[in-house]
Amino acid sequence: MKNRIRIIIVVVFSFLFQLVSASISKIYAASYPNADVVNDGFSNNALNFKNPIAIGIVGILVLLFIGAVVFKKLKRKYIHGFGRIELNIMDEDTSEVLKAQFRNLNNYSGSFTLFEVLEFKEEYEEAKNLKFVFRNDDGIEVVNKSECIVERSGRRLDSGYRVVLYDKNRITVLLNKIPKSIIVEFHTK
């Protein structure tokens, strides 16, 4: 797909370069009627670049093409939220588990943090840098740049490690400042 886009860009710019060089040679020929002008391959009736409407149309087409390419790149980058997560908060001291909380992710775009999902409660502030990024393959990528410890299947993951959660996958987030852990389970529907 990238090669096709590159080929299209090269063809469009080479065509525009030929158009500009043809118009410059026509202007030069009109200014100096006795001078020798190299034939550029365009007939005088084929393209008329003295008309500003023709130049405007070509410019608009180029801008539309560039806009479409940029829009497609941005659309890939920012994926609209999908699915929901189940949060089980457990007190490590008493082993008491709070009632499961379900949060829909449809209102988020691109990414969200665990702190946002927990409604900005101050006791969970250390989870600010635990980021979840939506992916194209119906999963969310967990990026841990926080002080929290993230476990998956009983194994601790390093601070910079990224893990992808698919339907019904779960991670456990161990908070350091308070004796609580959060079990995060992702559901696509």
TrEMBL record:
It comes from the Bacteria. The keyword Transmembrane applies. The chain crosses the membrane at residues 53-71. Keywords: Membrane, Transmembrane, Transmembrane helix. The keyword Transmembrane helix applies. This is Uncharacterized protein. It comes from Clostridium fermenticellae.
